[in-house]
Design a protein that fits this description.
Distance between the termini: 93 Å
Mean pLDDT: 78
Strand order of the largest sheet: 3-5-4-6
CATH topology of the largest domain: Arc Repressor Mutant, subunit A
Number of strands: 6
Oligomer: single chain
Order of helices and strands: HHHEEHEHHEEHHEH
Structural class: alpha+beta
CATH superfamily of the largest domain: Winged helix-like DNA-binding domain superfamily/Winged helix DNA-binding domain
CATH architecture of the largest domain: Orthogonal Bundle
Number of helices: 9
């Protein structure tokens, strides 16, 4: 079996044809090693970090100076950061790498419950959501879900007051890793996951969800501006709250 060849990089003990280790060759080797360490490191490196790999005789300062000069006109520069060295994006190119990162908003329990009801019972109105939850839905809860882009206004229910109906969006599927709304867990899966403890009512069931964009027979399209529909929903919720307080 052929023996694997050793590294071709010269070291301090390497001898060439004239029997003398070439200083330039060793410098070139050390420079390559320093460049590789800088590229692979997740943190700035101190001179001691390089010396650990290269030994006491290595010309670390000269190598870093030459690398800094080599990188100066490139898209990546070698910078001294707090006494240590690191590769950084060239300052004049920084604007190309700026990206906005929107931190996901943590949903309250009420918002999560409302989202689940919308997902399983869509198209559903705010009053129907409250009926299922058994408590009043804050006017801000649906606003938050609309802002996330996971819930949308579908249409208007053909009923007194023509309340707005809600449904989920494609962004909802993307967020929760679903190919289709039908991949939401059914009653058996929810029981297996421990979401239901104890005995459930005989008539209890989990509806088969559908997010079809087609309006149902009891829905009218949203013909007016969406902001008008949202404002009406908020106004209706506030009027109901005031009426409830007055009744108490």
């Amino acid at each position: 079996m052929t023996e694997m060849a050793s590294s071709s990089l010269p070291n301090e003990d390497t001898e060439f044809e004239d029997g003398v280790a070439t200083r330039d060759a060793v410098f070139f080797r050390d420079k390559r090693i320093v460049e590789a360490l800088l590229f692979a490191s997740e943190r700035p490196l101190a001179v001691e970090d390089f010396r650990f790999h290269l030994g006491k005789k290595a010309q670390i300062d000269a190598i870093l100076a030459q690398l800094a000069a080599d990188f100066a006109p490139r898209g990546v520069n070698l910078k001294n950061v707090a006494g240590k060295w690191a590769l950084r994006t060239a300052e004049d190119l920084g604007y190309l790498l700026i990206r906005e990162k929107h931190e996901p908003r943590k949903l309250s329990r009420a918002a999560m419950e409302t989202l689940a009801i919308v997902a399983y019972h869509q198209p559903v109105t705010r009053a129907e959501i409250e009926d299922i939850r058994g408590v009043a839905t804050s006017k801000g809860t649906l606003d938050v879900l609309l802002e996330t882009g996971w819930v949308r206004l579908r249409g208007r229910r053909k009923a007194p007051g023509r309340p707005v109906t809600y449904g989920t969006t494609e962004a909802f599927l993307v967020q929760f890793g679903l190919q289709a709304i039908t991949e939401l867990p059914g009653l058996a899966e929810l029981k297996g996951a421990g979401f239901f403890d104890g005995r459930l009512p005989a008539n209890f069931n989990v509806p088969e969800p559908s997010d079809s964009s087609e309006l149902q027979a009891d829905e009218d399209p949203l013909e007016e501006d969406l902001f008008v529909a949202i404002s009406e929903e908020r106004l209706g919720a506030e009027e109901e709250r005031l009426e409830a307080e007055a009744g108490e």
